[in-house]
Amino acid sequence: MTTTPGRIRGSVRALRLNLLLTVGLLIVICLLLFAYLGPLLTDAKRAEIGAFKPKQRPSSEHLLGTNTQGRDVLAVLTLATPQTLNIGLIAGAVGIGIGVLLGLISGYFSGPIDPIIRVGTDVFMTIPAIAILVVVATNVRAVNVVTMALIIASLAWRLPTRAIRAQTLSLRERGYVQVAKLNGVGDLELLVKEILPNLLPYIIASFVATVSWAILATIGLEALGLGPQNEYTLGMMIYWAQFYGAILRGFWWWWAPPIVMIVLIFVGLFFTSTGLDQIINTRLRRAV
Amino acid sequence: MYLNYIIRRFGMFLLVIVLAVTINFIIPRLMPGDPVEAQLATLVATGAGYTVDITAMAEAYRAKFGLDQPVWKQYLSYWWDLLHLDFGYSLANYPDTVAHMVTSALPWTLGLVGTSTLIAFAIGSLLGGLLAWPTVPRALRAFIPLLMIASAIPYFLLAIVLIFFLAIILKIFPAAGSHQFGAILRFDLATIKDILHHAVLPATSIIVAGIGTWALEMRGMLTGILGEDYITLAEAKGLKGDRILLWYGMRNALLPQLTALALRLGHVVSGVILVEVVFAYPGIGYRLFQAVQIKDYFVIQGTVLLLILSIAFALLVMDLIYPLIDPRITYQRR
What we know:
The complex is a heterodimer. Chain A is an all-alpha fold. Chain A is built from 11 helices and no strands. Chain A has helices at about 5-15, 20-35, 75-110, 115-125, 130-140, 145-155, 160-170, 175-180, 185-225, 235-245, 250-285. Chain B is mostly helical. The interface between A and B is large, with 41 and 50 residues.
């Protein structure tokens, strides 16, 4: 048995030892600060068409230059980053919500429901996400950030469902769950009070992985031209840069900033989730 | 036992196909309004329909959707058409069929995915194997964080960076296309050289981004294997390090690595689609991109179905072969 303070002290030590998680969290925190404080300090007018003389190289006036439409690239980047993160967070939250529910039900109740959910998840895992998402996004008219997030969320539940189901299966057999069951604790109470709290580390790790997957999926759809046409997102920045031939014409300051930002997002989330996995698995190894 | 496994696995394959077709059928009908009107309106608005007779196209469209019939009848005739490989006509290139447009693009994609994934798999696995070895030089270990970063970057972003440095600034490789513009494709040395020259950059972006994933996967797998008793025995027998690593360690990690390849196939293909878009490489992905730009709905649908079908088929074949080549596997239900 570990006491709560002991557990917290353990987590702090693990955090200090786990370089990956620390670096990952640091990147993520910086990104969040930039994304949600940046727009407050930015004049949205700078991002509009024809705000400035087009095609300017980066200068002290325009740190990241202007594009062919006369938009200030830094201003567009500042407004686009939170939107992309929002899509990832909304899709991730919806996905993890559905995933936890399905995974719990499937893993806890044996009976006809488990094979249905398990096979269903396997079938959906086989289909490349981009194929379904393209069909959905083509049929939805007027895509905005929220609809985009919901389109992505329609497939974001698969990985969490699988992960949570596997963990629930093993938790179900633990001694304390069995004891509670023998004492006549109801299924719902057992799920909420005994199993769910112990799933928390896995839920957090799945959430980070799902957000990362969701952002990858959005950027893919946006690169195909299926993103929100009238809103700023990182994927749409790349799409428009490509659309206006920025790469071939050598306007590197137009496409490089969103790429750097996207790479930072993925590296930050990847380090965080790998670090979390390492901590969870070490704890698991010690517990056995 | 194996027969049972085959039947279950095949049932799974059929389920995937049914699901994919059903999704393709339902989604356009879930949206409010008349899909024919809406599609044609966007088509006219984007200016793609100016070359063909709109009314003839509307008729083709309406017949295809069969909107005046009950839904179950529409569903059955949808299946009937698909079973006859009839995916309808392209709206933008009207008399051209979707089946022809998609299959003519397929070889380019297969070539690109096949070669670059194999190369990435081979280099990545070797590198990962070396990195798992306890006595590997420190300098090589510095690669690990680099590999992690590489594995986290989407292929097509790397592609853009490669185009900028190697095609625009240094002008070593072409920035777009699969061969010289307007060249006639013959089976001779010049054509092959031209095609390879054009394929270098797209392939490189897939390989570089792919190596990281395979290396990390192999490293993880090998760390587990190196703790096994037979490795200790091999060491006790006085076998050389490289022999243990290659023939006792990596050989046993290679087959599970194939499973990882199967699991990631969908991810790899999505990545390749976007790389094709960036390079205007005339495969399935670029076709899809062009169809999305002008809302050529049947082409989108046909491409998507073909994509799902081929991936499901590849996975089926891999799953059926796998128990035959790896004696450690059992066909038991999980």
